[in-house]
Amino acid sequence: LVYFLSSIEFNNLPKIHLRVFLPPNKRFKDFYFYLNKIKNNLQKNIYLYTEDGFKKNLISTEVGDANLVNTTTPIFNFYERKFSLNKHIIGFIGEARINKGFNKIPELINILNKSDNSFEFIVQFSGTNNETEKAEVQLYELSQKYKNVKIIKKYCDYLEYRKILKEITIMPLMYDKDHMNNTNSGIVYSCISNEIIPIIPKDCEYLKKILADNSFKEASTVESFAYNINVIKDDYINILKNAKISSKNFSKIIDNGSMIKNIS
Fold it and tell me: Helices (DSSP H) in the chain: which residue ranges?
């Protein structure tokens, strides 16, 4: 895309808003080579956005000017959750990767089902690799053993993804702490905008800045994730009240974001 942009004239074109979801590392030199070729058009004809300061710094280092890159919050739809509910659904959504904790899901389901069989589980993923295929087999075995485990192995389109998010009430994010701190996973924003109570890895300071007090829990081991799921279940109404505060604050951040202002 940046190669294409580097080959066109901008005089009579509308402004272009380009969101870089994950900047390539330095071995993909062509990206930064052509990005520098359009450098003079940044903040004039082309607006370049990243989701957080970490990604902004990666690109800014290559173009030599932090002022040419905007940080903005991705735009999400919001869902207002009711306080009354019949059951708690524990959700896992996304890629089946070790650094996203996919391999820990079977153990967590086993722990929770042994202590309390009132939970339901939705596990959605689009594929596995050599590191996570064992966990996939275990999940299918659990779905045969327990009626409360639902496996969705497919890529979900936008509407399907939204439907799943509306069903989930608690989301344990068993990600590696460094992965969560450095990539700022969009699933956190999905939790906030859908008023899902997240359990985040301990010491994720950035996440705690965007989550209201007592709208989330922290955990470091599978056992502590299971423990906190039960804590949330027992105090769900109060925690949901604070999750709604997180959601409202996040909505204001989106409305005041640089991308919204530049487009409108």
Answer: 2-5, 29-37, 53-63, 105-115, 133-145, 158-167, 177-183, 186-193, 205-210, 222-234, 236-255, 258-263
**In whole angstroms, what is the distance from residue 220 CA to residue 174 CA?**
8
In 3D space, the residue among 65, 70, 66, 63 whose CA is nearest the CA of residue 33 turns out to be 63
- Please tell me the distance from the alpha carbon of residue 193 to that of residue 246, in angstroms, as a whole number: 8
Give CA–CA dist 26/102, Å, rounded: 28
CA distances from 47 to 29, 40, 51, 67, 197 (A): 21, 11, 13, 11, 34
pLDDT digits (tens, 9 = 90+) for 225-236: 999 999 999 999
pLDDT in tens, 17-32: 988 877 777 667 788 8
Beta bridge partners of 151: 123
* Cα–Cα distance, 73 to 24 (Å, whole number): 20
User: What is the DSSP-derived secondary structure letter of residue 63?
Assistant: H
Q: Against a cut of 0.85, is the pTM above it?
A: no
Angle of CA points 52, 260, 53, to nearest 5°: 10
Q: What is the spatial order of strands in the sheet that 70-71 belongs to?
A: 16-19, 46-50, 70-71
Q: DSSP letters of 108-166? A: HHHHHHHH-TT-EEEEEES---TTTHHHHHHHHHHHHH-TTEEEEES---HHHHHHHHH
